[in-house]
UniProtKB/TrEMBL annotation:
Keywords: Membrane, Transmembrane, Transmembrane helix. Residues 15-35 have a biased composition (Basic residues). Residues 1-72 are annotated as: Disordered. It comes from the Bacteria. This is Membrane-anchored ribosome-binding protein, inhibits growth in stationary phase, ElaB/YqjD/DUF883 family. The lineage of its organism: Bacteria, Pseudomonadati, Pseudomonadota, Alphaproteobacteria, Sphingomonadales. The chain crosses the membrane at residues 162-179.
Length: 187
């Protein structure tokens, strides 16, 4: 009897194990089937949502391209307008500077006559040579275009940057003094 009992529990044990393993397997396949159904349902709905009309992207792309082109054109127009205004202002400033330098040359020339009478001809000659140099500079300034003057300034800075920095510092100092004295006169 012991042998039959040993046989029964041995045969009963694998059956119990098989039954226990089969149940979760059945649950897994059922879960797989429901998951497959939901993914199939999702796939079919996403296809409908993402399938665009063939003409829609072309129209949207064309609209974007036209908008970006108009922005580029607007930017170019603004840039050209700004450059034109800057050139006009530079030309006007050049004319005013030329007139001011010409007037300075006349002033130096007039003072040369006074120096001849009061101090001597030697000092009057120095003043006349300075007046001639100023008149020559004013003539060169009137003859040159603004673009030529900018290029000349670039070449000068490239050749001697230390002198250019020193000149900029002196001009900055003089301008600040002029502004400060103008403010002191107003108050």
């Amino acid at each position: 009897m012991a042998t039959e009992q040993d046989k029964k529990p041995a045969s009963a044990k694998p059956a119990a194990k098989k039954a226990a393993t089969r149940k979760p397997a059945a649950k897994k396949t059922a879960a797989k089937k429901t998951a497959a159904k939901t993914t199939t349902a999702r796939k079919s709905t996403t296809r409908k949502k993402t399938t665009p009309k063939p003409s829609a992207p072309l129209k949207a792309g064309a609209t974007r391209a036209a908008a970006s082109e108009s922005k580029i054109i607007d930017t170019d127009n603004l840039k050209n307008k700004a450059i034109d205004k800057a050139r006009a202002a530079a030309n006007q400033g050049k004319e005013r500077t030329g007139d001011a330098i010409g007037n300075l040359g006349k002033l130096i020339d007039d003072s040369a006559r006074t120096l001849d009478e009061n101090v001597g001809e030697k000092y009057g000659d120095y003043a006349r040579s300075a007046a001639d140099a100023v008149h020559t500079f004013a003539d060169k300034l009137d003859q040159k275009d603004v673009d030529e003057m900018v290029e000349d300034a670039r070449q000068f800075v490239r050749k001697s940057p230390a002198v250019a920095i020193g000149a900029a510092a002196v001009v900055g100092f003089l301008v600040s003094r002029l502004i400060k004295s103008g403010m002191d006169d107003r108050s």
